[in-house]
Amino acid sequence: MNSKSAGDTTDGRERYTLLAIVLHWVFAFLVIGMLFLGYYMVDLPKGTPNRAFYFNLHKSFGVLAGVLILLRLYWRLTHPVALLSTGIQRWTDKAAWWNHRLLYLCMVLQPATGYLSSSFNKYGVKFFGVALPSWGWENAQLRDLFMNFHHLISILLVALIVIHVLAAFKHLLLDKDQVLQRMLPWSEK
Question: Which chain regions cross the lipid bilayer (predicted)?
Answer without folding.
Answer: 16-41, 53-75, 152-173
